[in-house]
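Exercise 3.2. Students should predict the tertiary structure of the chain below and write it as structure tokens, then compare their answer with the key that follows.

Predict this chain's 3D structure.
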Amino acid sequence: MILDFFKRRREAKAQETALCAKYENAFEEFLQETHPLVPPKATKHKDAALYRHAWKRACVLEILAQRLNDEPRVGLYREFQRLAVERYYPVAPEGLYGKPQLRMEAKASGRLLKAEIERLNPSKKVQPKPKALACVYIGRCEKGLVYVGQTTLPPEYRWVQHRSEGTGPFKRGAKYVTWEVLIGPVPATELNEQESYFIGLHNAFENGHNDTRGNDWQAYEKGQKIRQGTVRSLG
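Answer key:
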């Protein structure tokens, strides 16, 4: 029994080491791919600029992989983010308020998202762009807590914006969030009702990341009652 335990432990350790090496090699290739994409203005602290841009790309590519339900790539890009963070801070320049934190502004993240979408498609084909979609969406963090929101923009842009600004499901320190459109397209006049309904249905106010019940109290109460099983869903 003891020998079997140590054997299994060695095998698990070997598998973990092999997986780490695999991620490291893939990340090196990712850095080579990223190097020519680093903004030209980043002339100083080139290593820090490379790791910062690699982190940004990995964040955006994770969201695109989630939209395709490509779980292996979701995990790969999350690992790239971790590796980029590990390498960035030791070489990042020290400023007046310490080392610059890794984050993206909303406009910059939108441009990067668009660029990555275009890069993933052959240049000779018509480049698909994110379409505006009035919808209600849900984000679920690694702790299982949810955030329900609404948007009239392409949902991918809203998701990147939450990440870059540390809002929605990211505001309490969450790092990894899975996303899903709950309902859409929705007439703009119904967004408040649908958002409040789903906040109640998923208990996102009492036990989630939402700070309010939304703008439609009755719809919120309906969602709560359906979640609790006191009334039947009409959907």
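Discussion points: The helical segments are 2-34, 46-67, 71-91, 106-119, 155-165, 191-201, 217-228. The first strand starts at residue 135 and ends at 141.
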